[in-house]
Amino acid sequence: MALDDDIRILSGVRLFDGFTAEQLRLLAFGAEQISLPAHRRLFREEDEADAAYVVVAGEISLFREEDDERRPVAVAGPGAMVGELALIADTRRLTSAEARSSADLLRLSRKMFRRILEEYPDTAVILYKRIHADFMALVERIEQMAPRFEG
């Protein structure tokens, strides 16, 4: 895939809203292209997470495994990002991920992503505000649902 195609795909990812063309170019240049056949595992729950993935084509199933049983969490299709927490925090995978169909992905390493944020501190501030707003919206949704679970 051409660099311009990678830039176009990355520009559609919500996490990168507000990134300049140059920043998207740096991201795309540092991204690794991965192809997975159907049913190939991308990562396992509890693996160390050092990269995020953008789905270019195909679908990735996210699931939890308990007592040898898979519990579906989500399906990520083209333009979706999988494992984005790995870009900003030293963490472990919260779910397992597997190609539902053959899939093409862009792998974005935390090291490369942090380098971009260090070079462009204004972008880091924008990203922080976006993540903070998303987190606060999640907290609000949880608080709205809390009465349903009270005895």
UniProtKB/TrEMBL annotation:
Record CDD domains: CAP_ED (cd00038)
Domain of life according to the entry: Bacteria
PANTHER family, A to Z: CYCLIC NUCLEOTIDE-GATED CATION CHANNEL SUBUNIT A
Stored SUPFAM superfamilies: cAMP-binding domain-like (SSF51206)
Occurrences of domain Cyclic nucleotide-binding (ranges): 15-117
Organism of derivation: Kumtagia ephedrae
Entry GO MF terms: intracellularly cyclic nucleotide-activated monoatomic cation channel activity; protein-containing complex binding
Keyword tags: Ion channel, Ion transport, Ligand-gated ion channel, Transport
Full protein name: Cyclic nucleotide-binding protein
Pfam families given in the database record: cNMP_binding
